[in-house]
Design goal:
- The chain is an alpha/beta fold.
- It has a single domain, classed as Rossmann fold, CATH 3.40.50.150.
- The chain contains six helices and seven strands.
- It has a seven-stranded mixed beta sheet, with helices on both faces.
- The longest helix has 19 residues.
- The radius of gyration is 15 Å and the shape is globular.
Amino acid sequence: MKVLLPKNFDELVEKFNQNLKKFNQIHSLTNYKNIKPIVEDSIKGLEYVTRYPKVAIDVGSGAGFPAIFLAMILEHTSWHLFEPNPKKAAFLTYVKVNLALKNVTIHKEKIENGVKFKANLITSRALMSAEKLIEICSGYYDEKSEFLLYKGSNASLEVENLDARVYNDGVRNYVLIGGLNVG
């Protein structure tokens, strides 16, 4: 998918960065000092998605990587961020309000405990194995849904039993899984 950044993208990223620095002083959400590579990594994954999603889910959203940056770009996609950690969910809620991200909904729970709905795209960054992630997302996807997983060096081994495409960008492996049987 061709990635087009909105005109205010850099401004939103800077606001996000200020929010992160503010929260990190108290809650230590992440140890990243420079978020520019994180932003680039987050949006790079969109290049491999085959179609524009109407509804997207991010599992284990943490400090918002990649979901917040993807929501900034895909403004007409309804984003659902699942984060059970209270301080991380509070940060995500603060960012949503502060950046006026009307397309973002924060779910302060594990995805397996949520009310099921279908998503066109499910993302996750280094949360758990691909097979385990697909398992806990049961009920949220159908045969038309895609999974975009941000993985490390063992990505190919992790998805060898799945119909997946692995795209390597030096350090990061982006794994795209689609067309899962949901029978």
